Amino acid sequence: MLISVGALGVKTLRRQHILRLLVVTGVALTIVPCEATKRRFTVADDITLTHFGDPYTGEADPVTFSPDRRYFVVCTERGLLEQNRPESTLRVFRTDEVQQFASHPNIVNQPLPVWSLSKSTYKDAPIITHINWLVDSTEFAFLLKAPSGNNQLLLANIKKRTILPLTPEHQDVTAFRIRDRSHYVYSVLSPDILNKAVAETRATTIVGTGRSLPELLFPSSMSELHDLSDLWAVIDGKSLQVLEKSSGQPIHLYSAGQNALALSPSGRSVITALAARTVPSEWESLYPPPYPSSAVRIEAGQQNVGAFDGLRYVSEFVLIDLSSGETRPLTGAPIGDSAGWVHAAQADWSADGHEVVLSNAFVPLHVHDAHDPLNRPCVAVVDIASGSMTCLERLKGQTAAGYEEGYRYVESVRFASGKSERVMVNYQLPGGTRGTTTYIRLNDGSWKPISPSDELKSEEYTVEVSVNQSFRDPPVLVATDTGTGTSRVIFDPNPQLKDIDLGEASVLKWKDNTGREWIAGLYKPPDYHPGERYPLVLQTHDFFERNFEPSGVYPTAFAARELAAVGILVLQVNECTIISTPDEASCNVAVYESAVDKLIADGLVDQNRIGIIGFSRTCYHVLEALTSSTLHFRAASITDGVNFGYVEYIISNDFINNSVAHDANAVMRVPPWGDGLQQWLKTSPGFNMDKVMAPLQVVANGRLDLLNMWEPYAVLRFLHKPVDLILLPGGTHILTNPGERMVSQGGTVDWFRFWLQGDEDPDPAKAEQYKRWRELRKLQQANNARQK
């Protein structure tokens, strides 16, 4: 007779008790080893987690196949705690070896990369971006973040295992496209930006008229925000700066032009988007925004195409001869992004160089659909010689009430395998699902979508490589044999997670009081007990069911699984799609209130221990909730975001083309002066901070952001309410530096443990933090007493 200790439920019996059991029963006892107790997830685990591609900027794809599909590059990224730096790694695999492994289950050993290289050269990620294969499939180019912080263009040779710099380190490359070693084009951040900042540090006087306050206060920090770049090219192996033919001046590219860059098959001309020197008045009516109250729209007039910032400039697709600098418009119309149509504006050439496909392109009236009340931008194919164009797909937009039915964000467009008869449109749905639509040209010259929308593949290789993950499941690289449909994992970058108890994660679905349906990610502690009510932290700024993001969504401030590990329920909430309208904040507050009501009704949450975190855009939503919601928050945190306060509005004058003011005018309906100030007194959170009852943690990522975050902090200080201000002097918006993430995410865990659970980390290094917070607790108790 065999008895399993596990079956008897006596895993914790001491050795003498087990021996006594043997004697008393006289039976043979098989001791089944207990599974080692798994540890809890920490901020350090989050930082060192390996991601595929760059999960936050999208500038590094997880998998990039060579043109002939003989090879593919896998890009991963993680944080190195001891070095206090992020690390990017490229692994080159042979497709035939992966295909053999995927199609033969009897092969045990996973395929190994034929070449791996890792780089950790700068304090912030991403280190490696924009992987681009050359046409011969033996080399690929990429951008590497140099120790100076500049992006340098490098060329990797697979056979020789060598890396060759194509640009000097002192140039900061903002975009590039390459055909071969002798033909490529790239843009470089204008040296005028740094030169001006250096000159002003030595100036006796500076003219401030027309300049922004951040630029005058922190000139050396502004280069990270400016996007003015100069166009360069290498033709037949010779490097040259591309000069405009008519003026002999450098051709300037802003962000729109950098994203749209497309080099012709000959390597002698390029498609890009240039800011229009003069915006025609008729463009205002011909090319409207997706909804009438949109804050982003085309405005006629002159544009300074040599200004440091062009983020809100009206741009159009153009064709540039790289040798002569001759420039001509392609569509005679602006790109859709200039009018608030949120899609990527990109271009690609057919292999014969006769046509280009454009995304998010407005088209002239003769191509416009007369049955559509809006002249929507298109995915369009343009014949280079004749200028004729065909609209393949009319794009949907984001309206004041959310996304239009059928909306999908167009990420990129290209000719399939470079051919001219098939166009691939890659898109992303609002929930994060990605897909592709293929258009095929018929014999009569018209286009139609085909099904299934699969990309053309070489007959020799019938394997797909993708990243499999969900908000519950860590990412793994999977190879699928398209012939048999069998899939196998070829690379697990995070085997250490097998020793960690992540706790349960599930999808919560509910409706708010208007009937709108919502979903969110609910993270429970590993030792969760049904029927027990837990403290809750609401994390804002979207939820993606398809992505494994232990922090919840971003690594700035958010710490979902880390909070769950210490016994706090976390709900990662989707953001309301109503944006830049007076209803934006109230819509999001309704989401928070209805979600909490649902969790309280389900018996999961203690209504007296609720916290909330805002980051970026949702700082405004959280402040609105703190000043207007019926929810009683025990603690709150906001990091590096907008608050639509009066101070923020004033200091944004002449900053990034007044984009903050434009947005605020749409949200508040009016600017904050004259009669409009009365509206701001009612609706701007900054004028209603006296209603805040929760201790607030305010975190500024960088000194520039400190200006924006100052108003809510200062007002609460004047009101003698508990508020804590943390400055990360070198912090980026999305934090990727391990040390800064430890402060931000670790600070979040400490803050909510202190206020929701009354716990303190015994780490001596945090003694001053808790001394400060205990004083805030006394202040909170005094305020609560006065309220009674």
Give the tags.
788 residues; alpha+beta; Rossmann fold; eight-stranded mixed β-sheet; five-stranded antiparallel β-sheet; 22% helix; globular; disordered N terminus
Would you give an account of this structure?
With 788 residues, the protein is of the alpha+beta class. The protein is built from 17 helices and 45 strands. The protein has an 8-stranded mixed β-sheet with strand order 38-39-41-40-42-43-44-45, with helices on both faces. A hairpin with a 7-residue loop joins strand 34 (463-468) and strand 35 (476-481). The longest helix has 21 residues, at 767-787. It is globular and about 80 Å long. The chain starts with a strand and ends with a helix.
Q: Any chance you could write out the topology, listing elements then pairs?
A:
Elements: E1 2-4, H1 5-8, H2 15-25, E2 28-30, E3 39-40, H3 43-48, E4 51-52, E5 63-65, E6 71-80, E7 85-94, H4 95-103, E8 115-119, E9 128-133, E10 139-145, E11 151-157, E12 162-165, E13 173-180, E14 183-189, H5 191-201, H6 213-217, E15 229-235, E16 238-241, E17 252-253, H7 255-260, E18 262-263, E19 269-275, E20 278-279, H8 282-286, E21 301-302, E22 315-321, E23 327-334, E24 347-349, E25 355-361, E26 378-383, E27 389-394, E28 398-399, E29 402-403, E30 409-415, E31 422-428, E32 434-441, E33 447-450, E34 463-468, E35 476-481, E36 487-491, E37 500-501, E38 505-511, E39 517-523, E40 534-539, H9 560-565, E41 569-573, H10 584-601, E42 605-615, H11 618-628, E43 635-639, H12 646-651, H13 659-668, H14 676-683, E44 696-701, H15 703-718, E45 723-728, H16 738-757, H17 767-787
Parallel strand pairs: 1-2, 3-37, 40-41, 40-42, 42-43, 43-44, 44-45
Antiparallel strand pairs: 4-6, 5-6, 6-7, 7-8, 9-10, 10-11, 11-12, 13-14, 14-15, 15-16, 15-17, 18-19, 19-22, 20-21, 22-23, 24-25, 25-26, 26-27, 28-29, 30-31, 31-32, 32-33, 34-35, 35-36, 38-39, 39-41
